[in-house]
Amino acid sequence: VENYLQQVVDYYIECTRADNHAVREAACQCIAELAKKISSAALNPFVPTLLSTLIECFQDDSWPVRDMACVAAGSFIHSYPDQSKSSLPVLLPLFYQNLEDPISSVRQGAAIAIANVVRAYGNEILPDLISRITAAIENLKNQPEESEKYGNLETGPATYGVAKRIRDNDPDLHENQTMYSCGSLAPKMGRGGGGGGCSGGSKFKKASEPWELADGCVHLVGELANIKACESSMESLLTVIARAYTMKHYVNHISLFQTICTRILTICQSLDKRIFKSQLEQFFDLIFYCLESENGLASHAAEQCLQALATRLGPNILKGRIENYSPRYLQMYNQKVVGSCGPGGLPPPPGIPGPFTPSGGGMGGGLPGSPVHIVASRAPIRGGLPPTQSIQIPPRSGGDCQPSLGGTPT
């Protein structure tokens, strides 16, 4: 690739201007790979041009293109901090804009990109980030109870719920045009913010809300936990994030809490154990609020979070912390988490089924009262694996047995 780098770069830039949004997204991903896989000596002359191209892609209608452009720009800043510094005044506002995007994956990509900026410039940007994160969490008090359902959709007649314009019936718009595969969103997702579709266009984009910025900041704190230089700031940042639990007046608070549970899972694995243990109790209310929630995603995230904490801290230490904080929480933990884990309260290793119980729990069980009997095979399998289990179905009683035609028995 280095031998033909000029041609490769020219082709990637050309693809970022293609009509098809999937091609533009792939081009941004390929540009990101250049920053990671090509030697700096070979790529140095092309860095300003590639960064300029990525900045243009931030204005794309397609949110996957904007997402990938953001991640790619962050990779360039991390790999080429000196050459990228002149573009930082333009890129940072774009990163912050993506951090509050209504699309969750765009917010996650912005958090990754901003973390790469911190890796490149360290304390030059970190104090401002801490201030922004704190302000975003405090601004949750201004979150409306009901989220805005529709963004800047134009008014007027509508068909099948999509804004309809009279000019859509102009035959010139439908004849002698570029053909796309059935279901493609490419005609709606133009470059530079000129179209719409998939909640990502400038004309159909829902306005950002305070809880979405707070959600992006939670992802950002999760990414900063992986950076050693940010370790001294993590105690204060975790305290800020924990304050989100005090504001539950809005409908989407459970989505934000789910993100916090998911990020605590990763933070506890990367952050120094001493720092994390000192901040653990302030998240118990939020975690167990999600655990007993009727929202399946939030409840599952809380369960996974507690299992990760048990693995990281030790099941007995975690139980002791929970019991000291709230005996009721310990009862919930034993019922919903320990009951679904293996011995010691830890989750079973991947690929290993749960213990067999005759009433149907674990491997091979049936419903209570089922006529299916499980008999262990007598011949062990080579390699030390556990013996297989065969299923024996007893014959029906009575001499006049007719073959079953299926359906519900009567």
List strands and helices in order, with pairings.
Elements lengths: L4 H11 L5 H17 L2 H4 L3 H11 L5 H17 L1 H4 L3 H12 L4 H18 L4 H13 L19 E2 L2 E2 L46 H15 L9 H9 L10 H18 L2 H7 L4 H8 L4 H18 L1 H11 L1 H10 L36 E4 L12 E4 L18
Antiparallel strand pairs: 1-2, 3-4
Short characterization:
By secondary structure, the chain is an all-alpha fold.
CA-based gyration radius = 27 Å
Poorly predicted parts: 150-167, 194-204, 349-386, 396-410
Instruction: Please state the overall shape, judged from the principal axes of the Cα atoms.
Output: globular
For the record, give the distance between the C-alpha atoms at the N and C termini, rounded to a whole number.
Answer: 70 Å
Count the beta strands.
Answer: 4
- How large is the count of helical segments? 17
Roughly what percent helix? Answer: 40-55%
Mean of residue pLDDT values = 78
The helix/strand order is: HHHHHHHHHEEHHHHHHHHEE
Characteristics:
two-stranded antiparallel ribbon; 3% strand; disordered C terminus
Describe this structure in words.
Helix 15 packs across helix 16 (315-325). The strands form two sheets. This protein has a two-stranded antiparallel ribbon with strand order 1-2. It has a two-stranded antiparallel sheet with strand order 3-4. It contains 17 helices and four strands. The longest helix has 18 residues, at 104-121. The chain is globular. The chain is mainly alpha-helical and 410 residues long.
